[in-house]
Design brief:
Shape: globular
Largest sheet: 7 strands, mixed
Helix content: under 10%
Number of helices: 0
Radius of gyration: 14 Å
Strand content: over 45%
Order of helices and strands: EEEEEEEEEEE
Structural class: mainly beta
Length: 118
Amino acid sequence: QVQLVESGGGSVEPGGSLTLSCASSGIAFRSYYMRWYRQSPGNERELVATITSGDSVNYRESVKGRFTISRDDTKNMLFLQMNNLKPEDTAVYFCHADGTMARLGVYWGQGIQVTVSS
């Protein structure tokens, strides 16, 4: 059974920091491209950051320089370090495992709330 479980969300003031974690099980983690998505009320889910199986990274423009995606293949973990958080970063954040490049499946975590407010 595949599981992606996010943790580390919560409430923080503008300018603060949070680190999201995603623990995976049931997949060959190192073979997957891993992504963080987010969705705020009334908006479509949007891609935040990607890290490939070769550790190449990519970010949406609005989080560049503030967010860092990383992975630990020895622990099957994905991370998102978020610094200088802004109210517009408020959303439910989702961990996503994309195995299409390796002809494997695609999986989602259940999501975790991040709220940035004073």
